[in-house]
């Protein structure tokens, strides 16, 4: 049980010594009452109470300078959940009447001071303190639930807005429902995305993914509040949107500087606290609800430029170079036709640099147009397996594209000339590695590095060869191993889960039932 912190304020040394001795003598369970400090005047009592935030203040009334009742009056505004007990040598009705008016919990005459009376007053105050704590806990839980529901509602509403299913002006009617602290007269939109969504999904369980996305959202909201007012929510496909309005009129140059500073802060904080890489883009400042959809789309389109700029990009209005929806001329195609498909890390790096330089000369194009052109080039270069397996939507930037092509081309080359299909050797090695380390925390990145493949390419190949995704395969093998271990002894669910690399008991039981149709205990009884 949490201790009850108490402070004693009295100008008499003997009384303070008597109270200190009283608290020292308390034995369990009464030792839950803990003396947090003593003060010899009302002024000192105020300082001590504000510093320690006690649950109970026991105070004398008549002291030099400010009296105890005035001290209580001042503290009640600052410490509304603190209980006050008056300890006085004056059994005068006038003092008692003033104490009652201040809603003091108890009034004890200290000459003579009875331990029984003091303890009874403390236990009475404890009941009130516990009640305050329970209400605060319930309120916090309710606030968390409401906040979670608000985030889900905002996600739904903003998704409808971006799909054109909701008129922007409807946001005004839903301000209270969405808890929007936002002035639509002057604002800007921000979009952020996880740079390597593919590895994110392959590395973390669904529960961990939700937790991390919620943490990203909290960081975004916290930093938005540093620069103005607004709101943020999660969107589909591991993207996040924020809308920020500033507290005073600012120039375009100042807003550009603010966007750059905020974007860099978001990238740095998410990297530092969550070990995730994100890119951020901003729209031009605008105003009015009718402009909200256009501003959101502008920020979303700007975010696409991170594919060409690389990870952890911050794209502001002044830094934008809108891409062409199609390849502007034949120069890019001619450049591609003049090079070979990379198959090593060094060749991939050179390919990415050359492609970036060529795009700089010919002008930026949309991600979709570039990937379509690269796929056609792969087909012309007889790299049909690479072209067919390319996960266009999940490649984050040019360097990842180059590394993915090289990894895939290398694996394809190793598979040629033999009866074994491409990459079968790597997948077999990966399965053996997983089998030997089921009790460890396995990640897709770790296994991909073991078999010398790019993580994104390994994920595609693993699913193609194994018939299921990496995470599903590892989970299934862990549950199969748990079934093998069941007869050995009387395991608890937590022990059995930890033995196969799943430290969360609830997640282990959910996974076990999903795969076997029943719980571990019922499975053992059934056998």
Tell me the count of domains.
4
Uncertain ranges: 417-423
Spatial ordering of strands, largest sheet: 2-1-3-4-5
Shape: extended
What is the annotated CATH architecture of the largest domain? 2-Layer Sandwich
CATH topology of the largest domain: Alpha-Beta Plaits
Mean pLDDT equals: 82
Strand elements, count: 10
Mind describing the biggest β-sheet?
5 strands, parallel
Proportion in β-strands: 5-15%
Which structural class do the helices and strands define? alpha/beta
- Kindly provide the name of the CATH class of the largest domain: Alpha Beta
The share of residues in helices is 55-70%
Distance between the termini: 43 Å
* Rg measurement, Å: 33 Å
**Oligomer status:** single chain
**Total helical segments:** 24
Organism: Paenibacillus flagellatus
Pfam families: HTH_18, Response_reg
Domain Response regulatory: 5-126
Domain HTH araC/xylS-type: 428-526
Provide an overview of this structure.
With 527 residues, this protein is α/β, with parallel strands linked by helices. The chain folds into four domains: 4-135, Rossmann fold, CATH 3.40.50.2300; 167-319, 2-Layer Sandwich (Alpha-Beta Plaits); 331-415, no CATH class; 424-526, Homeodomain-like (Arc Repressor Mutant, subunit A). Helices cover 58% and strands 10% of the residues. It is built from 24 helices and ten strands. It has helices at residues 13-25, 42-52, 68-78, 93-101, 115-162, 170-173, 175-178, 197-203, 206-227, 252-274, 292-304, 306-309, 331-337, 345-362, 367-380, 384-389, 398-415, 424-436, 444-450, 455-466, 470-485, 493-499, 505-516, 520-526; strands spanning 4-9, 33-39, 56-59, 83-88, 106-109, 188-194, 229-234, 239-245, 278-282, 314-315. The strands form two sheets. It has a five-stranded parallel β-sheet, sandwiched between helices. The longest helix is centred in the first third of the chain and has 48 residues, at 115-162. The radius of gyration is 33 Å and the shape is extended. The model is unreliable at 417-423 (pLDDT under 50).
């Amino acid at each position: 049980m949490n201790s009850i912190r108490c402070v004693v304020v009295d100008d008499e040394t003997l009384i303070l010594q008597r109270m200190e001795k009283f608290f020292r003598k308390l034995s369990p369970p009464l030792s839950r009452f803990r003396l947090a400090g003593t003060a010899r005047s009302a002024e000192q009592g105020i300082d001590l109470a504000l510093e320690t935030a006690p649950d109970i203040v026991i105070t004398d009334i008549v002291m030099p300078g400010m009296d105890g009742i005035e001290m209580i009056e001042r503290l009640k505004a600052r410490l509304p959940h603190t209980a006050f007990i008056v300890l006085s040598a004056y059994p005068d009705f006038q003092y008692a009447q003033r104490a009652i008016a201040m809603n003091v919990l108890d009034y004890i005459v200290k000459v003579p001071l009875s331990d029984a009376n003091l303890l009874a007053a403390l236990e009475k105050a404890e009941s009130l303190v516990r009640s305050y704590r329970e209400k605060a806990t319930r309120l916090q839980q309710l606030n968390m639930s409401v906040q979670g529901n608000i985030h889900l509602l905002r996600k739904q509403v903003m998704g409808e807005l971006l799909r054109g299913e909701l008129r922007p002006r409807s946001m005004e009617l839903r301000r209270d429902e969405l808890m929007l602290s936002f002035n639509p007269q002057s604002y800007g939109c921000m979009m952020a995305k996880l740079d390597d969504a593919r590895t994110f999904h392959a590395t973390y369980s669904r529960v961990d993914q939700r937790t991390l996305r919620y943490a990203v959202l909290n960081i975004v909201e916290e930093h938005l509040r540093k620069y103005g007012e607004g709101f943020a929510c999660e969107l589909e496909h591991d993207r996040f949107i924020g809308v920020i309005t500033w507290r005073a009129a600012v120039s375009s140059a100042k807003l550009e500087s603010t966007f750059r500073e905020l974007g860099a802060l978001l990238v740095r904080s998410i990297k530092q606290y969550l070990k995730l890489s994100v890119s951020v883009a901003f729209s031009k400042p605008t105003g009015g609800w009718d402009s909200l959809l256009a501003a959101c789309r502008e920020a979303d389109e700007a975010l696409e430029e991170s594919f060409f700029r690389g990870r952890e990009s911050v794209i502001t209005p002044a830094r934008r170079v809108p891409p062409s929806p199609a390849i502007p001329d034949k120069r890019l195609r001619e450049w591609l036709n003049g090079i070979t498909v990379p198959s090593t890390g060094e060749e991939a790096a050179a390919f990415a640099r050359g492609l970036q330089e060529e795009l700089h000369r010919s002008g930026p194009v949309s991600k979709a147009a570039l990937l379509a052109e690269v796929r056609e080039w792969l087909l012309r270069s007889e790299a049909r397996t690479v072209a067919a397996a390319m996960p266009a939507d999940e490649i984050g930037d040019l360097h990842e594209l180059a590394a993915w092509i090289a990894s895939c081309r290398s694996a394809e080359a190793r598979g040629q000339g033999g009866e074994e299909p491409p990459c079968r050797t790597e997948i077999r090695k990966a399965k053996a590695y997983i089998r030997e380390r089921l009790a460890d925390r396995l990640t897709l990145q770790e296994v991909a590095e073991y078999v010398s493949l790019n993580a994104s390419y390994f994920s595609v190949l693993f699913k193609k060869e194994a018939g299921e995704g990496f995470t599903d395969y590892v989970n299934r093998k862990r549950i199969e191993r748990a079934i093998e271990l069941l007869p050995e002894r009387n395991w608890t669910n937590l022990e059995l889960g930890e033995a196969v690399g799943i430290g969360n008991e609830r997640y282990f039981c959910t996974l076990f039932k999903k795969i076997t149709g029943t719980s571990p205990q019922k499975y053992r009884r059934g056998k």
